[in-house]
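Support reply, case 0932

Customer input (verbatim):
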Amino acid sequence: MDSGELQAGQSLTLYTVGDPSDVYDLSYVYNSYYDFNDEETYTINTYSNIDAGEYNICPRLAFESTNDEIYLNLTKIGYPGEVTSSTAGVGTIGPENGGYYNYRGNLIGSPTSDFYISFNNPNEQFDRYFWRKDVTEGSVFNIDYTTLPEIQNTVNVQSPSNTIFGYGVEGLINGDINNIHHSIREGNYPNGVSSLSIPVPTNVFDSFYFRLGFGNNSFQFFRVQHSAIIPASVASPNLSFIVNNQSPANFNMTTNGEGTTYDVIFRGSNANETVFVAHRIYGEVVPEIAFSKENLRMNIQQTYPDLTGFETLPLGSVSLTYYNTLSNSYKDILKNRIEGKVNIIPLNMYYEGVSKQFD
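Our regenerated output:
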């Protein structure tokens, strides 16, 4: 076994001596500190049964929230007007000028970017949307809300029986160099829902990402697909599992259905809940999955003084995922996950799975 310190933009070579048939894992640690609530998190990622080769570990993307790259000043939007597209940003509202909404937010691309956002006037039946291509950072738009196009198109989606449901719809433009996923709509239903009516603009986007999660108190199902149209119905994935032993020293579970990868997370915190640690283990789905990773985590923890008091971590969650995307090969999916590409879905493809929370 070999180890080293990762540095952004630099290469790290790890060497090992053993039989060519030996199986190896790759582990690395993400450490984050949040000064606004004095919390520190450590996430140990372990990828099981990797091939020798070069891996470009994807950096964590910083969420931009300066809210100073685009400004929309709307009048005649009614009161209280609201944003309905889940587009990030902040706004101020008031009853003057027929109801106003002053929005400011960030662009995805730089120095120019396409931008989509939708709003609702409480006195109107349909939402309206704002869409511009190649918006320059710092742009200001003063808009009479009644001049924006209405979203009269509604997509109806039927869901299997559930007690909790959530979804998101994103629009994509062919050839967009920034590959922006424009938020169109999202919704969360903690008591479940049997059908959805989603307002979707026409003649704006070339394809859509449709993300959903639903289930009951035991298992949660999820699916993400990329298609030219939003589907009229969804079905539960044909995947399931039973955890027979929750210990990280002797974990065991049996699986049913066609899956590609599993994701098992053990996690805990110190008594003051100021330090959080998670050990996330990825591997290939087979009918019976068994591993012992407790010593691995304990050895890694010795490098971090904050983690000296953590003993056995309880099981947090388990998920199985089937990929019908760039590849269904475990080794390809594993490499894509390490490099931050696992969520890239070509048109007319998808991934789906099942999960269960234990903590």
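We compared this against your earlier run and they match. Two observations from our side: The chain has a mean pLDDT of 90. The longest strand covers residues 39-50. Please reopen the case if you see a mismatch on your end.
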